[in-house]
Amino acid sequence: MIELGAPVLGEAEKQALVAVLDDQWLTMGARVRAFERAFAELHGVEDAVAVSSATAALQLILAAFDVGAGDEVLVPSMSFVATTAAVVHAGATPVFVDIESPDRPHMSLDEARRSITPRTRAVMVMHYGGFAVDLPAWRGLADEHGLLLFEDAAHASGLGGVTGVGTDAAAYSFFTNKNMTTAEGGMVVVADEARRERVRLLRSHGMTTSTLDRDRGRATGYDVVACGYNFRMDELRAALGLVQIERLPEWNRTRVGLLARYRGLLHERLPEVGVPFTAHHPTSGHIMPTVLPERFDRAAIMASMRASEVQTSVHYPAVHQFAYYRERFGDVRLPHTEVFSRRELTLPLHPALSPADVQRVVDALAAAATR
Asked: Which of 57, 98, 173, 332 is deepest in the core (most CB within 10 A)?
C-alpha cells in the first residue's frame, strides 16, 4: 500500500524518547523550551510557545487577544473543522468566506472584504495544503479595517519567512500526518511579546510558576492570575520535535520535488485533472491536492485506487456543510468552496515516496479514470 501520508521515524527518535525516560522528567521542561527556540529560529521569529495541539494553539491565540462573545471572525470553510471550532469555543461567531476558485482554494480577499461588518474583530487565514497565503494583501485588508490577522498554519511548518511574519499570531500543527510530527502537538507564534507571554501563561492554568520551577527550587509556590487551560506540551513530544525539526527543511524540499513530478505526470497523462496553484507558488508541500473533472465519480476512483493499493483522501469536506454548523449558523452558500470540496482528491505525498511511487499513483489514477 502506498500510504497517503507517513511519518518518518527512526533510531534518532527512539533514542530521544529513551533519554527522556532516563531523565525521569516527563512534563513540560527544558526540552520543551529548547524545541520552542529551535522552531522560532527556523521560522525567523523572536520566540514560540509549544502546546498540546494546533487546535489548542488556535484557542490560545483567540483567548490571548480577547476575542469572544459579540465578535465575528472571518474563516475559510475550506479547512479542517478545528479552524472554525476554535472560534465557536471562544464564544465568537465564525463567518464563512468562499475560496478564490477551485484552482486557488485560499479564502477570497474580495469575499472577505464584502463579509466585514461592525462586529468583525479578526480574520483567520489558512495556508491550504502548505501553499502560502498572500499575507501582505491580507495584512493590508486587516489594517484598513482595524482587524486582527491570524494564521492557521497547520500545513505550513518550515515556510520560514512566509508564515508568522506580518500577522498577529500563527498556529502550527505537529499531528502525525504533518510535515514533522510529535504525534500530537502544536506551536504558537505571536508577534507582540506581551500577548505571547499571555499565551504562555494561559497554556498552563494561568499559573505564575511551572512545576519544573517549583521542583528545582526556583519557586516555592504559585498564584493563578487568569482562567487558563491545560494545553502544555510534554518532554516526550518535545524530544521528538527536536529530532524532527532538524530534518524538516530537507523533508519539505523532497515534498516539493515530488509535487513537481506529480504535476508533470498528470499534465502528460491526465490533463483534465487539475492541480491547484501554480508550479512556482511557495509551499511546504504538505499535501498533493488535485481537482477532478465534474464528470468523474470520485468515490469510484478512490475505491479503484485503493484496490490498486494506493490510499487517497479528500481535503476537505466544507465545514459550513457539516450538520452542526448548518444547524447553528444557517444555510450558507459558498459556490467555489462547494465545487472544490466535491471534486478535490488528495494523492499520497510524504518524504518516503520515490519517483517510481509517484508514477505508480498516477498510473492507478489513470486506470481508475478509464473504468
From this structure: 57
